[in-house]
Amino acid sequence: MTVTRLALAQLPKEYRRGRRTLIRSDSAGGTHDFVAWLTQRGRWLSYSVAMVITEAIHQHVLKVPASAWTPAVEADGEMRDGAWVAELTGDVLHGWSKGMRLIVRKERPYPGAQLRLIDADGMRLTCFATNTTGRPIAALELRHRLRARAEDRIRAARATGLRNLPLHHTAQNRIWLEIVQIALDLLALMPMLALAGKARCWEPRRLRLRLFTAAGQLVTTSRRRILRLARHWPYTSHITAALERLSQLPNPG
Question: Which of 56, 145, 188, 235 pairs with 94 at a CA distance of 20 to 30 A?
Answer without folding.
Answer: 145
